Amino acid sequence: MKKSMLFILILGLALFAYAQDPADPAEEVIVDPAEEVVVDPAEEVIVDPAEEVIVDPVADLLLQAEVTHEAKDYDATMELLQQAYNFDSKNVEILWKISRGYFDFADRKPNDMDYKKPFLYKGREFAEKALALDDKSAAAHKWYAIHHGQVGEAEGTEQKIKNSYGMRDHTLLAIKYDPTDDANYHVMGRWHYALSDLSWIERQIASLIYATPPEASFEEALEFFNKAHALDSKDIRNMLYIGYCYSELDDDGKAETWFRKAINAKADTDSDRTLQADAQEALDDL
Q: Which residues have a Cβ under 8 Å from the Cβ of 84 and sit 6 or more positions away?
């Protein structure tokens, strides 16, 4: 019995001593300084100045100008284009877009030639500059043709007829270099329409200026306007002039249809609303 008690006492003391003994230092988790994660300066990401993205101020201004042009803010568009022009006065895109901008200004009062004239002259000037740098620019040919034709109208019958050949030739070149632009077909339609609509006196003047006056017809005008409409079915100009052509061809039913389409189309600008007023007047005259 004494031996058993002695054994139990010894065993208890042994267990007590084990419980009081701290953990073995060899089992503690110690971070070795040699194993710490240190960022090697050689592996840091450093931007090479040669690889930095440099914004082209001209490209940026042209992009902004297209945004404002789409929003019909023509004053802001021209201001941005003038800034771009100050950076690069030999940039063809800048030049023809400035030419377009002058047309946008002139088109605010499409029936007021005195108001339009200074813008038309400036627009033609910038289109000429663009063509001098690139004679294969479809846009430069297009805007030259538009301004040149309207300058002729502003200067009277004789100049209108003289300018008609240049207007036609530049428009055909614009179509050659960009057959997807509806405006080029509209301009050719206007060329045929204007020459077909010459009065007897104007035809006599034309015969004095040219041994063989330019040939044109309302049928050809209609064909070009239909091509323009197929490419841009929302342009009120095309609807109006398709109506005019049918009226000249004595098809009042189709003329009425197209005048009503022009009247009911969405008008985004003052120019559009003027065109709709013209369509209403033409409809009333049928």
A: 57, 58, 61, 62, 65, 91, 94
What CATH architecture applies to the domain 58-163? Alpha Horseshoe (1.25)
180-262 belongs to which homologous superfamily?
Tetratricopeptide repeat domain (1.25.40.10)
Please, are residues 120 and 147 in contact by the beta-carbon 8 Å criterion?
yes
How many whole angstroms separate alpha carbon 239 and alpha carbon 224?
Answer: 12
Residues of 130-159 as b/e, b for ≥16 C-beta within 10 angstroms? bbeebeebbbbbbbbbbbbbbbbbbeebee
Which of 198, 181, 189 has the alpha carbon at shortest distance from 239?
A: 189
Task: Extract the tokens encoding 1.
Answer: 């019995």
**What's the average model confidence in pLDDT over 111-140?**
97
Cα separation, 47 vs 35, in Å, equals 29
Summarised one tens digit per residue, pLDDT across range 15-35 is: 334 344 444 444 444 445 455
- pTM of the predicted structure, to 2 decimals: 0.77
Q: Cβ(157)–Cβ(202) under 8 Å?
A: yes
Q: Where exactly does CATH 1.25.40.10 map onto the chain?
A: 58-163, 180-262
Q: Are 195 and 164 in contact (CB under 8 A)?
A: yes
